[in-house]
Design a protein that fits this description.
The complex is a heterodimer of chains A (about 325) and B (about 300).
Chain A: H1 2-6, E1 9-24, E2 30-46, E3 50-54, H2 61-68, E4 76-81, E5 84-85, H3 91-98, E6 101-104, H4 118-131, H5 141-154, H6 171-183, E7 189-193, H7 201-218, E8 221-225, H8 229-235, E9 238-243, E10 246-252, H9 253-258, H10 263-271, H11 277-282, H12 313-317, E11 323-326, E12 329-331
Parallel strand pairs in A: 3-8, 3-9, 6-7, 7-8
Antiparallel strand pairs in A: 1-2, 1-4, 4-5, 9-10, 10-12, 11-12
Helix pairs in contact in A: 4-5, 4-6, 5-6, 6-7
Chain B: H1 2-15, H2 25-35, H3 37-54, H4 56-59, H5 91-127, H6 129-144, H7 147-157, H8 162-171, H9 175-188, H10 192-199, H11 204-212, H12 217-240, H13 252-258, H14 268-295
Classes of the chains: A alpha/beta (about 325), B mainly alpha (about 300).
């Protein structure tokens, strides 16, 4: 796997924090706190790989990719893409760089404008950048039309349906439309925010295979969010496990599933059912006590302290740093000092 | 160009047994509007009524202020098809002349009101925060001012006729639309397709015009159709108070007001202008209904 290590990082996230202010007061608002959705995470994504992000609801997965896409202004930290810090770059430069970062959304029903035809949905990214004058001037309406048809064929939609509206398609087909839209500008990296979790299992595999094929064909890089561990295992080169806005463990996909290190990862993996009733009945699960604590308060110890079965005195007051266990495996836990 | 390409495709696809619709979206909308029978009948009727009214100087049987002293307060007859009023003026003639002003005021004031309301409501709803607070408090303020007295004061200073009244009514009837539009936008802007458009780098103006407003067109259309009726009624109140269109120029509103005292003895003086207002408002509502259906691709 050393060849992956040698590849240059395409995207670098450095100590990214995304806090949302909690305001109170009538007319004169004052900030009374903050939801620490993402609380200082760092990772790199290499060219051509897929970085999976797993974690339970509310752990900040979606917020992370949205901050990377600059849909929110990050509280602090930087997102470096192709040598440009998107957080602090001037708007024009940021937009130009973001042409190469596209998103696929979770809900195939809500992410397509019900009043637009498929052709205008898929062509929209091109239209927007054309109007901004950030595309090659040779790209005119006819070229866009051709490109839309090409994209539809590529993602497995009949191009004769380009005049139809989203509601005339099934969930899987709609997700294909969303993928075609994300591909329109020939991006380098695609941020997929749970792209299959709203779909039927049979459709999920079709979409995953499509994403896989597209990656090979266009040399795409993915940041792929899911809460389904099997999906993540299938698609990811490396996996980051998030909890309460922090990365707990970051490892090559195969290593993580074979040899989870962090207590949270172990619990998470043991929560996934095994599709064999014999084994499923015999195995022992790690049950975590309590709920995910509120992300509103500032923490000075390990973020997993409240629920950790192995907690120590040290964990209460010291935030464990990311520690490299071997070449492809990092973990943030005091057990591995 | 795309049409020829798609017709070639259609042939190849037809060979594969796939039915292809080659209708453009505008045509689909138009066909959907035509399917709404009530809306079609209403449009034809309103168009006919408007044409008759605007042709009043040509087709009306009398002058609108011509007095027939032999037939004062006469019931509908062959000579005066809809009867005459207290001054012996022909009701049909006055109805046609009055329609010119009433329909114009109703439609344009409602359009103006909806436009202002949509602009204010959508800015408040979309941008939120301080802008929202500021605009909505301004809306509350405008709402809490008793409209009629204010209109009376303003119109007494401006001795304009129909145009002035359109502006005055329009500028004092946007508040409801603004509130409804704001509310609708608050829910629509949370949709992922708005986030998607922002992720693509679309400007706010484009997002509002392309993604948000089309998805709340229902609320705007309903507001506008209700506004037509309100504008006609407001105009009649103003006329009644002598501040709207001044006599002897007829409007449906002032004809209705003039007939109040004699409603029992000469009902035709009340019934016909009332019917004219009722039918116009009803037609506009039906058309609005058809428009909503036609604009919504999911229906």
């Amino acid at each position: 796997m050393s060849n992956i290590q040698k590849q240059k990082p395409l995207l670098e996230v450095v100590d990214l924090k995304q806090h949302f202010p909690i305001e109170s007061g009538f007319i004169i608002k004052r900030q009374v706190g903050a939801v620490r959705a993402v609380d200082g995470i760092s990772f790199t994504v290499n060219e051509g790989e897929t970085l999976g992000i797993v974690g339970e609801s509310g752990c900040g997965k979606s917020t992370t990719v949205r901050s990377i896409a600059q849909l929110y202004k990050p509280t602090s930290g930087s997102v470096i893409f192709d040598g440009i810090d998107l957080v602090n770059a001037p708007k024009e430069q940021m937009l130009d760089a973001r042409k190469n970062i596209q998103m696929i959304f979770q809900d195939p029903y809500a992410s397509l404008d019900p009043r637009m035809t498929v052709r205008s949905i898929i062509g929209e990214p091109l239209e927007i950048y054309r109007k901004r004058g950030m595309l090659d001037p040779s790209i005119d309406k006819e070229v866009i039309e051709k490109r839309v048809e090409e994209l539809m064929e590529r993602v497995g939609l009949n191009r004769a349906f380009k005049n139809r509206y989203p509601h005339e398609f099934s969930g899987g087909q709609r997700q294909r439309i969303g993928i075609a839209r994300a591909l329109a500008l020939n991006p380098k990296i695609i941020l997929a925010d749970e792209p299959v979790s709203a779909l039927d299992v049979s459709i999920q595999s079709q979409i995953l295979n499509l994403l896989h094929d597209l990656q090979k064909e266009f040399g795409l890089t993915y940041v792929f969010i899911a809460h389904d561990l099997a999906v993540i295992e299938y698609i990811s080169t490396r996996v980051a496990v998030m909890y309460l806005g922090k990365i707990m463990e970051l490892s090559r996909s195969a290593d993580l599933y074979k040899n989870p290190l962090h207590p949270y990862t172990k619990a998470l993996l043991s929560a996934a059912p095994i599709p064999d009733p014999e084994i499923e009945r015999k195995r022992k699960r790690i049950i975590l006590t309590g709920d995910v604590p509120s992300p509103n308060k500032e923490r000075f110890g390990c973020y997993f302290y409240d629920r950790c079965p192995h907690r120590m005195e040290k964990c209460k007051t010291n935030i464990p740093p990311m520690k490299r266990i071997d070449e492809n495996h990092e973990v943030a836990c005091w057990l591995y000092e | 160009m795309s049409e020829t390409v798609s017709s070639n495709q259609a042939q190849s696809l037809a060979a594969e047994g796939i039915a292809v619709q080659l209708r453009s979206n505008k045509k689909i909308m138009w066909e959907k509007f035509l399917q709404h029978k009530l809306a079609v009948v209403a449009s034809i009727f309103l168009l006919l009524l408007a044409t008759l009214c605007f042709l009043a100087p040509v087709i009306a049987p009398y002058e609108f202020d011509a007095i027939d002293l032999y037939n004062i307060r006469s019931a509908p007859s062959m000579k005066h098809l809809l009867g005459t009023d207290a001054l012996g003026r022909d009701l049909l003639t006055r109805l046609l002349f009055g329609g010119r002003i009433s329909i114009t005021i109703g439609l344009t004031a409602a359009l103006l009101g909806s436009f202002v309301g949509t602009v204010i409501g959508s800015s408040a709803g979309y941008f939120g925060g301080r802008i929202d607070n500021l605009l909505m408090r301004f809306t509350d303020l405008a709402y809490s001012i008793p409209t009629l007295p204010l209109i009376i004061v303003i119109s007494s200073y401006s001795n304009t006729q129909a145009f002035g009244i359109v502006v005055i009514i329009g500028l004092f009837s946007w508040m409801q639309t603004a509130r409804v539009v704001r509310g609708a936008i608050l829910s629509v802007k949370e949709n992922e397709y708005v986030t998607a458009a922002r992720a693509l780098g679309a400007k706010d103006r484009l997002i509002i015009l392309r993604h948000v407003l089309p998805n709340i067109s229902n609320s705007i259309i309903v507001g506008a159709t209700l506004g037509v009726g309100n504008a006609i009624i407001t105009e009649s109140s103003l006329s009644f108070l002598g501040l709207g269109v001044s006599p002897p120029t007829p409007t449906w509103g002032n004809m209705l007001m003039d007939s109040q005292a004699t409603m029992a003895s000469q009902p035709w003086l009340t019934v016909f202008p009332g019917m004219a207002i009722l039918l116009t408002v009803l037609c506009v509502n039906f058309i609005g209904d058809g428009l909503q259906d036609a604009l919504d691709p999911t229906l």
